[in-house]
Amino acid sequence: MEVITRMVADRPVVIFSRSTCCMSHTIKTLISGFGANPKVYELDEIQNGQQIETALQQMGCKPSVPAVFIGQQLIGGPNQVMSLQVKNQLVQLLIRAGAIWI
């Protein structure tokens, strides 16, 4: 989990993804659509991707991708992100994290 903490420490939005996952693509598109520029880690394309995926599962991410961090806090997967969007809370999180300006 320490490696994940380091990976999310300096960016307002971080998404752990798989390049072949349609839900990962959807979440990246949603967040980018607000003007945010998330740091995306494609776990199937990086050397320690399996280790990171295991750590995400230990943190409670089921499924492990996509896993979204906003303001260094684990938001969760697609269900949690879409729930925030439906409640009109996602944009406010992005603003507070400094990911977008309005």
UniProtKB/TrEMBL annotation:
Pfam families registered for this protein in UniProt: Glutaredoxin
Residue ranges annotated for the Glutaredoxin domain, each copy included: 13-75
Keywords, comma-separated and alphabetical: Cytoplasm, Redox-active center
NCBIfam families (UniProt xref): GlrX-like_plant
PROSITE patterns noted in UniProt: GLUTAREDOXIN_2 (PS51354)
Keyword Cytoplasm among UniProt keywords: yes
Organism: Durio zibethinus
Gene3D superfamilies in alphabetical order: Glutaredoxin (3.40.30.10)
UniProt similarity note: Belongs to the glutaredoxin family. CC-type subfamily.
Protein name per its UniProtKB record: Monothiol glutaredoxin-S6-like
Protein origin, superkingdom: Eukaryota
Keyword DNA repair: no
